[in-house]
């Protein structure tokens, strides 16, 4: 049960993230796939806003993990620099916690990621427009995707 949502620009990416952030519950995991510049961090900024986080969210490219406190704690991972590394980084404890986790470049953490998650792919249509493909894995994520009634779609 995939859902595809078309987003027309950066502001709508932020708005969709904020919308989804308000639906998220503790101990949820979102994985974000997409090319560099697809909008993964922009989308995560919107999620943070939806969670009531006041701090500026930026890419944890060099630190790999940044955590923010809002209505719930958000753990934002950017696993891009972990390609080919296999040492224990202690991330499993975070995935097992009540944190809401967003993982950019999840393929580099696949061995330790929980199976159940909302797997999202962001595809660039052109300079501004993106297609968000939501693939729920597990019952609570199927329920989450059913709840999403986001109508910023362009039909043309």
UniProtKB/TrEMBL annotation:
The keyword ATP-binding applies. It comes from the Bacteria. The keyword Electron transport does not apply. GO terms for biological process: tRNA threonylcarbamoyladenosine modification. It is found in: Cytoplasm. One of its GO terms (cellular component) is cytoplasm. GO terms for molecular function: ATP binding; metal ion binding. Keywords: ATP-binding, Cytoplasm, Magnesium, Metal-binding, Nucleotide-binding, tRNA processing. Pfam families: TsaE (PF02367). InterPro entries: P-loop_NTPase, T6A_TsaE. Belongs to the TsaE family. This is tRNA threonylcarbamoyladenosine biosynthesis protein TsaE. It comes from Faecalibacillus intestinalis.
């Amino acid at each position: 049960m995939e859902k595809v949502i078309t987003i027309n620009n950066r502001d709508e990416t932020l708005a969709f993230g904020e919308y989804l952030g308000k639906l998220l519950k503790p101990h949820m995991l979102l994985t974000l796939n997409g090319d560099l510049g697809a909008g993964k961090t922009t989308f995560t900024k919107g999620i943070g806003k939806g969670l009531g986080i006041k701090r500026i969210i930026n890419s944890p490219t060099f630190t790999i993990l940044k955590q923010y406190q809002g209505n719930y704690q958000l753990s934002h991972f950017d696993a891009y620099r972990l390609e080919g590394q296999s040492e224990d980084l202690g991330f499993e404890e975070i995935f097992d916690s009540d944190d809401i986790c967003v993982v950019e470049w999840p393929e580099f953490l696949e061995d330790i990621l929980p199976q159940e998650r909302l797997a999202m792919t962001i595809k660039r249509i052109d300079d501004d427009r993106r297609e968000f493909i939501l693939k729920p894995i597990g019952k609570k994520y199927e329920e989450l995707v059913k709840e999403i009634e986001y109508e910023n779609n362009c039909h043309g």
